[in-house]
Amino acid sequence: VQLQASGGGLVQAGDSLRLSCAASGRTFSRCAVGWFRQAPGKEREFVAAISWMGGIIDSQDSVKGRFTISRDNAKNTVFLQMNSLKPEDTAVYYCAAHLNNVVTRSVREYDLWGQGTQVTVSS
Prior knowledge:
Layout: E1 2-6, E2 9-12, E3 17-24, E4 32-38, E5 45-50, E6 57-59, E7 67-72, E8 77-82, E9 91-98, E10 112-113, E11 117-122
Parallel strand pairs: 2-11
Antiparallel strand pairs: 1-3, 3-8, 4-5, 4-9, 5-6, 7-8, 9-10, 9-11
């Protein structure tokens, strides 16, 4: 299975982007999916995660009210809607799948990772 993250780009502060994470080779069946980001020189950090049926959602405080994670299981895709972007949101964004459907903030607990998509927010 491969995860493909897409939707990144160069935007100005206050703009919006919608990231997508699509699975190929298998479905996201019974997988929780998380979004993480990594800025240059920093560790990869948790952004948001969603359980298989969407009943459990978690996000870090710095993105609450601005970012929304959702999923369309029929399309085998998870989304991250990012509004009111700030320069500090600049990073490579990765999606990851937890095969046991656990919503967790721990990078180590995710089993499968996508290749990342660059988000750059200019001031």
